[in-house]
Amino acid sequence: MLFTDTINQCAEVAGMLWQCGWAERNGGNLVVNITNEVDDNIRRLPPLTAPLTIGAKLEAIAGQYFYCKATGCRMRDLARKPMDNGVIIRIQPSGEEYEIVACKALQPTSELPSHLAIHNYLATAAPEKKASLHTHPTELVALSHVGELCSTERMNETLWAMIPETRLFCQKGLGFLPYAEPGSQELADGTLELLHRHDAILWEKHGVIAVGNDVMDAFDTVDILNKAAQIRCAIPSFNIKL
Ligand SMILES: [Zn+2]
Predict the structure, then answer these.
(1) Domains, in order of start, for the chain
(2) Ligand 1 centre from 40 Cα, in Å?
(3) DSSP 50
(4) Closest Cα to residue 202, out of 151, 130, 131?
(5) Which residues have CB less than 5 Å away from ligand 1 (the ion)?
(6) Quick check: helix, strand or coil at residue 102?
(7) What is the pTM of this model?
(8) What is the pLDDT of residues 162-212, one digit of tens each?
(9) How far apart are the first and last CA of the chain?
(10) Which of 20, 22, 195, 230 could cross-link to 135 by cystine, CB 3.0-4.6 Å?
(11) Strand 174-177 vs strand 200-203: parallel, antiparallel, or unpaired?
(12) Active site residue 193
């Protein structure tokens, strides 16, 4: 049975991302560690591809299984057909390669190496966190265009001041990463560094990446933070002292 509870939840969250307007075209991606749910049927699946290189040695996730959105696919399509728009991969024992085991030989998200680097870090630092989610929440991205807010300290001061739940449910706040090219090593390294202190990171003028116990948890973190950003955007700038 390939439709694990986690994959069903990925489909639900993908639909919510689309409804929020945070997943235009093929925007955003998600990668979830499903190793705990993998049964013998999945373990016995033969690889659909030759081993593919990750580009790093990720020993902490060697032998583990992940569900990933496929590259070029839309979240709104994944919501309806998660196994036509995502793949299950198995990390090779070396931690340097992976193989696709289900259901189709689709290419995983182009951001797979940076997501897997995050999961490699989480596997030892916070093993309860199984999901990483990247999306384009409109108001958070809008605030990252405001120069005076472009630091971790100023962004959190602003968001925490909007509504009490933000600080309550996002106690670690939002890490702010200055603009870096999508898919670049600079973006991946900066994200990993900020993950030591935050569960969500705002990529300047691009989007957010969040980690959580599951993908719904990661979504909730982004949703709470973006709610605060929405409120900030709704306040006329001449009428607020930040
Ligand atoms: Zn993006």
Answers:
(1) 1-127 (3.40.225.10), 137-242 (3.40.225.10)
(2) 35
(3) S
(4) 151
(5) 207
(6) strand
(7) 0.94
(8) 999 999 999 999 999 999 999 888 999 999 999 999 999 999 999 999 999
(9) 52
(10) 22
(11) parallel
(12) no
